[in-house]
């Protein structure tokens, strides 16, 4: 009987393993093509599904299920702009689909004089391949009479900070900040690189938000967050936790969710600090608090906390006259929201909130990754020849248990709000935001 139980258990494990492979075959295929071995993360997922503590370590010896040649040939390649690099209305209005490393995208790469070339590249390609494409484009460019020499690829932020990529680095497109752009230059030109003019200068003006309802903006924030979050496979969380930035296969969709969180925070600060009228600024403050409440109500904790953290930005928080003009009802509500964002006692208020919710929900992804990383680093992966699976949490797999139904309204105002939310224009330079704040309300006011 014991032997039979062992056989049945092995059959159950194999059944789940192959069902898992069938579900994630396209994701795993990319890794398998580079390294023909079963991903180390797979036993963790299998064990989580089975809700068992240990499984034999040699499960990693299982072969990867490959797509047949016919499937490879018939798979359609879609060339699409990465949503943050190209602000095209038509692209923004399309439902979001999961990115894979083999997907091809269009992206701009700038030169020191701020001219640019548009390249078509795989998301996962190496920096050396990107530079080869850029060099080829520059050779045929009328604006570049001199043949390009030894090029390097550099990420330049709106604050002027520079990061030089190594030729072997991969999938750099999704690692860029909100207003960070790729530059190709010769090493001697590195110090001369400057942010794009539109990233340095700003002009005051009324926000488009004044003409939009808080309900509609919140609905569009939630809808877009769901599209982004539903594109993230559980494998990407595991890959991030187990390998982090050293991963050979980057968690592309997960990085886009993290970027969106940062983008929403800076959007809140940007809109308020560009508003010169004190009464209108107070109105914006009220609207953002209402938007955060509606996101919380719809269990989108990503945008909920991103808006709250945006209002807590030091450049916004110091606007004494603006906050004093806020009605007491809104002040009290925002204080409650701040308490949920409070990191004290290991984010107890947030954890109490998320425990009280039922799926579907969008968790505050940065904190989820922090928890998963802590569990991974604080617990041993192996106990002798057995794999420890208690370290993984089940909430990761239940957050997306149900899918929200998206509306299909096509009225002009609806589409305008949808396009606005999906192509937020933000200032992410904290020094510039603080400068804007001091011009609005000097210290002695």
TrEMBL record:
InterPro entries: Ras-like_GEF, Ras_G-nucl-exch_fac_CS, Ras_GEF_dom_sf, RASGEF_cat_dom, RASGEF_cat_dom_sf, Ubiquitin-like_domsf. It comes from the Eukaryota. One of its GO terms (cellular component) is plasma membrane. Keywords: Guanine-nucleotide releasing factor. One of its GO terms (biological process) is Ras protein signal transduction. Pfam families: RasGEF (PF00617). GO terms for molecular function: guanyl-nucleotide exchange factor activity. Residues 213-443 form the Ras-GEF domain. PANTHER family: GUANINE NUCLEOTIDE EXCHANGE FACTOR, RAP GUANINE NUCLEOTIDE EXCHANGE FACTOR-LIKE 1. This is Rap guanine nucleotide exchange factor like 1. It comes from Takifugu rubripes.
